[in-house]
Design brief:
The protein has 75 residues and is of the alpha+beta class. The protein has one domain (4-10, 18-67). It contains four helices and two strands, in the order αβαβαα. It has helices at residues 4-11, 33-41, 48-54, 56-67, and strands at residues 21-25, 44-47. It has a two-stranded parallel ribbon.
């Protein structure tokens, strides 16, 4: 899945999971355990329903709180 490289980076201590935010997730292509694992590591997942209800401004304010001024990868 698209999350596999990020999982590997977290497992190899190359990426701080407490500074990772996934936005607009609509579900797992494989199993819910993928999301459970990410959340257990500290990854913040904003599902599409939450994004729609909170709005982009509120979600991005939270993202800024999480990542601060650190370099950020956005895709």
């Amino acid at each position: 899945t698209h999350g596999t490289p990020f999982r590997r980076a977290i497992e190899e201590d190359l990426l701080d999971p407490h500074r990772v935010v996934q936005i607009g997730i609509r579900g797992s292509l494989y199993s819910p355990q993928e999301h459970d694992w990410a959340k257990a590591q500290g990854v913040r997942i904003v599902y599409m329903e939450e994004f729609s209800s909170r709005g982009p401004e509120a979600v991005m304010a939270e993202v800024r709180d999480i990542v601060g001024t650190s370099p950020t990868y956005v895709t």
